[in-house]
Q: What sequence folds into this?
């Protein structure tokens, strides 16, 4: 009987397991994870820390689900993979034989060899163990406790850590390399809007500032950081949020080709037969294009991407060899109280061939940007802060290369704000306009 | 909808096509490079806020303690005047004789008085029963009114002061606790909900739950111990009815109605502050506050002041299970054309109103915008919504039990109407309409909806009754599930499976199960409170009324996933 072994119970591995089971009742499926007994949603880690949720709430499936669907869960760390005998050797001494192996081990917070980076109270945030560490680290040495924290990195994990620390009354300073928040993804206007919002929440932003050194006290615990500007900032906690790198260390010597991530083609196949890699940990050797023709990054460490990888690979594993061809890019985030959604290609600085349309509310935390090709006006990307956009509509506009005029005319179609919440009307007098709540009833 | 000044493009809307790259008006977001660190926990405003809240909590607890303690503060002395006022003439002689030893005696607390009085009535009845004089057995419950009339001492003489020192103080304290939250930035913060023993089913939850359960047991089964509260609320009743001589004096139900309304108002203010920035939540909360104050409280009082049958015009059968009971039908028929209007209105509400409005809006038009039970759940119950059971097994149990209650309610009402029309209380020789309806009243009307439904708020969530027991919710749910434009739309593939929606669903719906599959949520139990949409950090969920055919009831691999995977076209 076929035995599919999946290393990693994150969104990519679990999605693959579930979709294989949906199509194939016979195959044996084993998911190996060192992190947790059951699949939980990594994206909800911050909510556990802030007391919005318990760990149990973050498990999308009840514990009986796995036995019912005959997905075996094994709690172990994989030490070594023997591709010649097709065996996976675990730290509990057991060896499992696979007919197909899926590597879905995700990634690890990056560190850049800063002096003092191994001090107590310095950490990244990726999984459950990090959350436990953070609980320990933020309690701090009694009786003083942790009063000040520094978060290094102005990205998504950075702002999450800031919000988590803030919820416990800890003063947070964020070190941001660029001139505005998350400049690698957000244009300066959006970055400034977020920056202002963070400051309203009493988060101190140090822009164009990086970490130089972490200082420790006698007990080996962090007491301050020194920035590239030479400033010393007292801190009893340091969060490292400068990106993640694929978790591939355990593959050394296995014969599976690795660069930054596990190298795969568009079918997620590695250089070794019957070994696949999906999710955060893989790296494409071929260029992957979205259905709108936009190139995707060779390593795309996004939760949604992991889910798509898992779903696509399941087709191949069930006998229907299927290439990865993602739809129009999308992503989302939340910066304290401001939601963010993005669709298509949104270059932080538009290409020379692109133009941009930008709208911002005068006092609310809302803005909308549409990027389009200057030549034919075709929309290539839409993103918004503080507004909810309808995924299916935005995707269609980008796929069909709608001119920006038309998109503005029909913007109301993309309104996904809750009922009674105002949505901007940017092209008055044209397009259908937003029907009143009463009129929509009888649509 | 937006002032023109907000459109930040160069040439105006009619020339959008000529937009140049970066053709932006300057954006007012200049960010200073260095900002002094402000430690939120030491800023003076924060400290003031915290102190005010602590003061408010203290005042609330004092008010509550005085309120509860006031139940023990009366002394009781039975006099002949009390008996003449409270006892029907045909029973007066018997009761007077049986309570002769009590008369003039000063009881320091309610327990001895209730015991002696009940024993006296029981002695009378025992004698009649022995002689099989069934017609003369006293079935009226006199103890409540006799207790109330016999109260004396410092407390009954100073109810105004006690009212101020208990109810008003508690309201003031609660508002001082709630209002400072306006200083926080808008945005839903559920920080600490699952670590606080008051809201995570911890020890404070158990204490509050025991208190609420105790309250409901006394209210439904031993109201004679609550007569001091009735004395506290008598002046309000008199104020509403104009004078002491018009209309009946306050009963325990008036106290309950007043407290209920007060709680919905105070906790409604909390909702308005917590969900400011979310117009749907604010409108909905305002709506339940309005319907409670006007429809449940003021209009029935006004009707009884006008000597008309008092009816909550928004309440309807089968939630209002006694609507077709003989005494209520008789009362309406006696009241003439207005009574007939009430009968027709109440019947049309469930017969026509429910299917039509639920078709257009879903059952939320009632459950989370109008209903009194829903009003309490959405205000007082909001801090407890996350405690509902989300397991699949709970859903299976819910479906069986809530529809059983609906069937029970329909059969019970059918039997009651049959016996009303045919003047026979028995059907098939063994089904006794009176015993069936009193069984329903006791188990469903009192135990389930009151003691369990509200008493278990801090332990099992705010919608135990609505979810497992309410026959009207079951009926509305059937319409919503099979013939309605209402659904919760899932926004493509944006779900991150975080679980906030499921956790904060008061009806125990595993919203995430649908959302992460890109599937719309069509569930009979959904009351449309909109909290899943409000707490969603990614803007995935939206309550919508749209064409039934646009409901998406299958998982959507195309949107969620890979463009080359097309399982369903």
A:
């Amino acid at each position: 009987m076929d035995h599919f072994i999946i290393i990693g119970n994150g969104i990519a591995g679990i999605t693959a397991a579930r979709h294989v089971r949906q199509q194939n009742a016979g195959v044996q499926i084993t998911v190996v994870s060192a992190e947790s007994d059951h699949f939980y949603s990594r994206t909800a880690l911050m909510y556990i820390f802030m007391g919005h949720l318990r760990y149990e709430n973050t498990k999308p499936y009840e514990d009986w689900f796995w036995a019912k669907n005959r997905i075996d869960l094994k709690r172990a760390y994989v030490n070594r993979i023997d591709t010649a005998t097709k065996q996976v050797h675990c730290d509990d001494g057991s060896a499992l034989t696979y007919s197909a192996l899926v590597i879905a081990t995700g990634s690890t917070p990056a560190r850049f060899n800063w002096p003092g980076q191994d001090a107590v109270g310095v950490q990244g945030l990726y999984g459950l163990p990090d959350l436990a560490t953070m609980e320990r680290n933020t309690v701090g040495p009694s009786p003083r406790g942790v009063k000040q924290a520094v978060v290094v990195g102005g990205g998504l994990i950075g702002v999450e850590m800031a919000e988590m620390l803030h919820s416990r009354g800890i003063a947070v300073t964020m070190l941001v390399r660029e001139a505005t928040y998350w400049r690698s993804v957000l244009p300066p206007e959006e970055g400034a809007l977020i920056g202002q919002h963070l400051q309203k929440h009493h988060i101190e932003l140090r822009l164009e500032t990086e970490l130089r050194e972490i200082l420790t006290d006698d007990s080996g615990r962090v007491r301050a950081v020194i920035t590239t500007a030479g400033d010393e900032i007292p801190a009893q906690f340091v969060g490292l949020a400068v990106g993640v790198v694929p978790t591939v260390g355990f593959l050394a010597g296995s014969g599976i080709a690795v660069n930054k991530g596990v190298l795969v083609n568009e079918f997620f196949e590695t250089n070794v037969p019957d070994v696949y890699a999906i999710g955060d940990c893989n790296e494409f050797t071929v260029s992957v294009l979205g259905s709108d023709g936009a190139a995707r990054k060779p390593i795309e460490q996004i939760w949604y991407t992991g889910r798509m990888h898992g779903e696509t690979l399941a087709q191949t594993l069930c006998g229907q060899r299927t290439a990865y061809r993602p739809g129009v890019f999308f992503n989302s985030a939340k910066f304290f109280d401001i939601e963010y959604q993005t669709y298509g290609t949104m270059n932080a600085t538009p290409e020379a061939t692109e133009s941009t349309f930008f709208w911002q509310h005068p006092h609310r935390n809302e803005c909308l940007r549409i990027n389009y090709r200057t030549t034919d006006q075709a929309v290539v990307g839409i993103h918004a802060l503080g507004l909810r956009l309808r995924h299916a509509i935005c995707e269609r506009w980008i796929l069909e290369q709608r001119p920006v005029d038309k998109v503005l005319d029909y913007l109301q179609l993309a309104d996904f704000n809750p009922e009674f919440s105002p949505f901007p009307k940017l092209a008055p007098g044209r397009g259908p306009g937003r029907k009143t709540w009463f009129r929509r009833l009888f649509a | 909808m937006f002032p023109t000044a907000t459109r930040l493009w160069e040439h105006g809307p009619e020339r959008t096509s000529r937009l140049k790259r970066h053709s932006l008006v300057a954006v007012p977001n200049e960010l200073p490079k260095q900002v002094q660190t402000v430690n939120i926990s030491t800023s003076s405003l924060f400290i003031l806020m915290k102190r005010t809240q602590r003061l408010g909590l203290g005042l609330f607890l004092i008010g509550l303690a005085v309120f509860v303690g006031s139940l023990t503060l009366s002394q009781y002395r039975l006099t002949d005047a009390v008996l003449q006022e409270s006892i029907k003439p045909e029973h007066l002689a018997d009761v007077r004789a049986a309570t002769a030893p009590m008369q003039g005696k000063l009881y320091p607390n309610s327990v001895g008085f209730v015991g002696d009085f009940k024993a006296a009535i029981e002695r009378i009845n025992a004698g009649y029963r022995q002689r099989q004089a069934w017609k003369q057995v006293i079935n009226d419950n006199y103890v409540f009114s006799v207790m109330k009339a016999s109260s004396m001492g410092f407390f009954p003489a100073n109810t105004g002061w006690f009212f101020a020192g208990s109810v008003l103080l508690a309201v003031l304290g609660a508002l001082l606790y709630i209002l400072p939250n306006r200083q926080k930035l808008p945005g839903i913060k559920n920080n600490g909900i699952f670590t606080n023993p008051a809201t995570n089913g911890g020890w404070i939850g158990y204490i509050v739950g025991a208190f609420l359960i105790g309250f409901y047991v006394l209210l439904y089964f031993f109201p004679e111990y609550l007569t001091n509260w009735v004395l506290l609320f008598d002046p309000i009743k008199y104020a509403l009815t104009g004078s002491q001589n018009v209309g009946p004096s306050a009963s325990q139900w008036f106290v309950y109605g007043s407290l209920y309304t007060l709680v919905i108002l105070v906790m409604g203010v909390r909702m308005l502050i917590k969900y400011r920035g979310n117009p749907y939540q604010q409108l909905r909360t305002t709506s339940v506050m309005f319907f409670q104050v006007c429809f449940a409280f003021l209009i029935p009082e006004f009707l009884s002041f006008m000597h008309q049958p008092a009816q909550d015009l928004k309440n309807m059968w089968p939630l209002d299970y006694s609507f077709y009971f003989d005494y209520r039908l008789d009362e309406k028929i006696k009241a003439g054309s207005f009574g007939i209007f009430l009968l027709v209105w109440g019947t049309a509400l469930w017969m026509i109103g429910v299917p039509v409005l639920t078709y257009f809006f879903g059952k939320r038009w009632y459950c989370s915008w109008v209903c009194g039970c829903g009003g309490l759940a959405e205000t007082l119950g909001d801090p407890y919504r996350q405690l509902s059971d989300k397991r699949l097994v709970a859903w299976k149990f819910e479906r069986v039990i809530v529809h059983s209650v609906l069937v029970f309610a329909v059969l019970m009402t059918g039997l009651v109407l049959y016996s009303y029309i045919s003047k026979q209380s028995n059907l098939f020789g063994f089904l006794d309409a009176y015993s069936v309806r009193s069984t329903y009243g006791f188990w469903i009307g009192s135990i389930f909806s009151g003691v369990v439904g509200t008493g278990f708020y801090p332990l099992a969530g705010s919608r135990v009754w609505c979810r497992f027991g309410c026959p009207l919710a079951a009926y509305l749910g059937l319409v919503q599930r099979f013939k309605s434009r209402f659904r919760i739309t899932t926004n493509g593939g944006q779900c991150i499976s975080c679980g906030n929606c499921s956790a904060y669903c008061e009806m125990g719906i595993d919203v995430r199960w649908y959302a992460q599959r890109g599937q719309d949520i069509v569930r009979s139990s959904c009351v449309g409170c909109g909290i899943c949409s409000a707490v969603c950090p990614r803007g995935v969920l939206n309550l919508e009324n749209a064409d039934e055919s646009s409901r998406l009831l299958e998982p959507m691999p195309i949107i969620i996933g890979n463009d080359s995977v097309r399982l369903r076209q």
